[in-house]
What does this fold into?
Amino acid sequence: MSSVVRPSGAQMTRRIIVLVAAVFAVLVNAGQSALGLGQSPAEFAADSDATLRAASYAFSIWGVIFLWMLVYGVRQALPQTGESDILSAFGWPSVIAFIGIGVWTIAAGADAEAATVVLIFASLIVLLIPLLTHAPAIRRLPRMDRDRWTVVWPLALLAGWLTVAAPLNLVTVATGNGDLPAALSPTSWAVLAIGVVTVAALLVTFATRTLAYPLPVAWGLLALFVGEQERNGFLSAVALGAAVAVLVGGVILAFRLSRRPDRQPAEA
It folds into this structure.
């Protein structure tokens, strides 16, 4: 169990900022969609997808992520929610990540390509750091612990999706600007990106034993499989193989390995 204490004034201030940042990210995305201000995330991704294309339905996962972000934001801001090691570790990183994805939506709408790359990688990295540095504490959380379901799961889902979206964003921008290095063919760069995503997904899941992280990665890879089916059969097959590897590997790592004697049982 994580240690739980009554939050101090400074900690409650941090929690309110976390909630505001989560609401900001959701409202910016909803406002962009409702008002049609510039490109949507799906339109931005499709603008220069000659190297790597994801099916447009993939971006519907944002609805699930945003809902769980709000659950996290509201629960951690409640005065009766005690301060825990996990809440403390993810507090400020989640603020940075939420603001980052909110501003990313604005930048994508304005077609500010370089800004989108910086914002999405920064949002990913700032979440991966506490996920990895606090992996032992995450693994020790009991299956039904509230911090597992209202802190780790929302932020691992977001980190998992950004693990796919960040390289896709980079490849898209590089393709559109003609900056994709000629050392490899476009298909080879796409395969390399898929390989990096797959290895990262399995390594982070191995460290955290948290199924929330590989699930959105597999979702994104399946969207690449669908998006490339008619255009590049080889690349589509690679994406499908990677999706299966991440999904099966994620389940094994999250459930089977967590049953080792030095781990809590079935830490999903």
In short: The chain has one domain: 4-259. The chain has ten helices and two strands. The longest strand covers residues 4-5.
